[in-house]
Write a structure and sequence with these properties.
Layout lengths: L3 E7 L3 E7 L5 E8 L6 H18 L7 E8 L3 E2 L4 E2 L13 H9 L3 E5 H12 L7 E7 L3 E7 L2 E2 L30 H5 L1 H13 L15 H9 L3 H25 L3 E5 L7 H14 L2 H6 L1 E4 L6 H19 L1
Parallel strand pairs: 1-4, 4-7, 8-11, 11-12
Antiparallel strand pairs: 1-2, 2-3, 5-6, 8-9, 9-10
The structure holds zinc ion.
Zinc ion binds next to loops.
Length: about 325
Amino acid sequence: MDKHYVGIDLGGTNIKGGVVTASGEVLHFESIETEVEGGRDHVLDRIGMLAGKVRDAAGLQPEQIAAVGIGSPGPLDTKRGIIHEAPNLPGWINLPLADEVRRRCGYPTFLENDANSAALAEAHVGAGKGTQCMIMLTLGTGIGGGIVLGGRVWHGADDIAAELGHVSVKYDGIPCNCGSIGCVEAYASATGVVRRARQAIEQGADSSLAGADDSLTCEQVFRAAAAGDRLAQQVVDDTAAYLGTAIGSLINIFNPDMIVLFGGMTNAGDQLLVPLRHEVRKRSFKIGADRCKIVCSRLGAEAGVIGAAVTAMQALQEQREA
Ligand code: ZN
């Protein structure tokens, strides 16, 4: 009988869990609140509980699960299953997360960075299926990334590869949370979009967004652009240019088959993609730009869970081969 895998996508607000088959099909998926305020052990107990709960809901026996994979915010040590620090999970410092979850659910447990997990899922069952070199950018409050080469996540020497939000697009740019300056995240993340829109409004530009209070969102800026607001259109075009600049460099370095964009901002579709592709062409070698498809993710909310399950599958396979 084929074994199945449990994938856990750990976030500061929700923990998503699912049972995934060896071919990447989700048999059961659900999301529970993280309840960070209950403390570290409480959250660990909830992860262990969710693993059993989704297995039971999928109608499986305990022995039908081969392993558990967890996609977690980092930085992490994926080989040792340790979470060094997680900004949304206060007090989670150098925590042996894989061991703690293994103890609670009884299955071999493996850890992967959350953005890498989403990229792995996309390369296995999503838009990037069949690619040899796929790069994903996750566009949210910040910008994350994942590089999948030959179906495997590229971790680099210290597990910190694919910090694609911190590709510099302006050598004398604004400060970034990472300590550097001019990172693409500082400009083209949802936070960066709102900051630039606000700045333009403060400088007196005429806009339907003028008078927007502190609750102005990235989505509102994109919606105003779609409705013809000039200021918002400029902000969106600049966002595409910043992203296109970073992606052009990635194409020159990796010569990827595909770049996948993931996250709420991709709802803008061609409004973002058309100027972005235009910028990429200006910034990369023609052969590489012709080759590389730039598309939006197909997987949505289940991506992290599928990727975590694929992580567990690959790790178990590696252990067997060793
Ligand atoms: Zn940075």
